[in-house]
Write a structure and sequence with these properties.
There is one protein chain. By secondary structure, the chain is α+β, with helices and mostly antiparallel strands. The protein folds into 2 domains: 9-83, Roll (Ubiquitin-like (UB roll)), CATH 3.10.20.30; 94-167, DNA polymerase, domain 1 (Orthogonal Bundle), CATH 1.10.150.120. Helix content is 32%, strand content 14%. The protein contains 5 helices and 5 strands. The chain has helices at residues 30-37, 94-101, 111-124, 130-136, 148-167, and strands spanning 9-15, 18-24, 56-59, 62-65, 78-80. The chain has a 5-stranded mixed sheet with strand order 2-1-5-3-4, sandwiched between helices. The longest helix has 20 residues, at 148-167. The radius of gyration is 17 Å and the shape is globular. It starts with 8 loop residues before the first strand and ends in a 10-residue tail after the last helix. The mean pLDDT is 94. Bound molecules: FE2/S2 (inorganic) cluster (2 copies). Residues 45-48, 50-55, 65, 67 line the site of one FE2/S2 (inorganic) cluster (FES).
Length: 177
């Protein structure tokens, strides 16, 4: 059994469906925990003070900025990072596929945050207007793209999720995102 620093705090989380138990310093951010302890480096760090949205992940289904949360605050939570959005067979989620189709990225640094934010938004707003999409993504910053490809991607993802739901049998609840 490995020794741990007695000042560290024990947490249990599920990350992308896998249960974990770790001992973490009280002030370790959730972003750093995911990147360094879980080796999930898809969660990016831009500003590290809640402005850019690059570090957005889902905690119990809610989009949160993982640079603003301590790992200990996530104790007992279900966490989804960008690595957890694809299907188990590796097929892309509707949002990921639409980003690829519309080339909603250039350097890609902002992309995980946009994809996670859009996924959470479309789960809550399955039939958004273009204005609602733009508003929902206004908290994520991109320095490269001019946003048009990103907005087109989220529009297409919204339409494709809606069509899939409409075509599904009444007793089947299609999963968005
Ligand atoms: S790194 Fe978290 S919001 Fe910018
Ligand atoms: S694609 Fe480079 S920051 Fe958005």
């Amino acid at each position: 059994m490995t020794e741990h620093d007695p000042t560290e705090i024990s947490i249990r989380v599920r990350v992308n469906g896998i249960g974990r138990r770790d001992h973490v310093p009280a002030r370790l951010t959730l972003a750093d925990y995911l990147r360094t302890r879980c080796e999930l480096t898809g969660t990016h760090l831009g500003c590290e003070h809640g402005v850019c949205g690059a570090c957005t992940i889902l905690v119990d289904g809610e989009a949160v900025r993982s640079c603003l949360m301590f790992a200990v605050q996530a104790d007992g939570s279900e966490i989804t990072t960008v690595e957890g959005l694809a299907a188990p067979d590796g097929s892309l989620s509707p949002v990921q596929a639409a980003f690829r189709t519309h080339h909603g990225l250039q350097c890609g640094f902002c992309t995980p945050g946009f994809v996670v934010s859009a996924t959470a938004f479309l789960r809550e707003h399955p039939t958004p207007s273009d204005a609602e999409i733009a508003e929902a993504l206004s908290g994520n910053l991109c320095r490269c793209t001019g946003y048009q490809g990103i907005l087109k991607a989220v529009r297409e993802a919204a339409d494709s999720i809606h069509e899939t739901r409409a075509a599904a049998p009444a007793d089947t609840d299609a999963v968005a995102g």
